[in-house]
Amino acid sequence: MKTNTKTLNNGLEMPEIGYGVFRVDEGEALEEAVVTAIKEGYRSIDTAAIYGNERSVGNGIKKAVDQGLVKRGDLFVTSKVWNDGLDYEGTINAYEESLEKLGLDYLDLYLIHWPGNKKYEQPWKAMESLYKEGRVKSIGVSNFQVHHLDDLLSYAEVKPVINQVEFHPKLTQQEVREYGKKHDIQVEAWSPLMNADLLDHPVIQQLAQRHDKSPAQIILRWDIQHDVVTIPKSMTPSRIRDNISIYDFELDTEEMKQLDGLNENARSGPHPDEFDF
């Protein structure tokens, strides 16, 4: 299965569906899941330093490359810096540590994981240096609200290509998405299935039956029809396959409105304005 791509504001192409590994433990099972995802057509892999699983993700990528499934240049690999009080040099060191664990020479995307009471100025300046030196292909942010983005853009020399936020039918992030469109910052969804809590929702179940698709496929289709990049997580091969198989149907305008109407501004993770590491 080949996924469509989004063109980021620096011209880089990013697959609109990726494989996420949040809350997955280091180990051989994750390595094999990464191989499975690549076999099924995923070309974007998303991890983070705080997940504690970069080494296994890297081992999975290496296995896939060694098996001839893919070349490194075909993959879009993302990691994130946990910027709790990090200064400029600390951020550079964190990037190098992520590369070492992943066994890679560069990342396609490096994100600041949380704004953390505006603890991002020095990390961002360090990431700009990495980008200008060609050591990372693109840089962005995660969990930034509009006021964080306004603050960052007031001094940034390089505009973030991505803002990765919690996004699902119960948290539609309209203000963040409108800001992203206005400033050409691509929105990306983490926890698109709300930790599977949405899969039993009657509206989503009804749409799944109507389209002969899984509830997860309905939600992920809603993501991409909202021009949001999405990174579902699963360790189950059949679900890994299903999650990328969303290009043979489309939700109509009324169905999109139905899903939009589920919004409650409800989060499965912390609010960025309240979470300070």
Automatic annotation (TrEMBL):
Keywords: NADP, Oxidoreductase
Pfam families for this protein: Aldo_ket_red
UniProt KW NADP keyword: yes
Boundaries of every NADP-dependent oxidoreductase domain copy: 18-264
Domain of life: Bacteria
InterPro entries: AKR, Aldo/ket_reductase_CS, NAD(P)_OxRdtase_dom_sf, NADP_OxRdtase_dom
Signal peptide positions on this chain: none
Family label: Belongs to the aldo/keto reductase family.
Name used for this protein in its record: Aldo/keto reductase
Species name: Halobacillus kuroshimensis
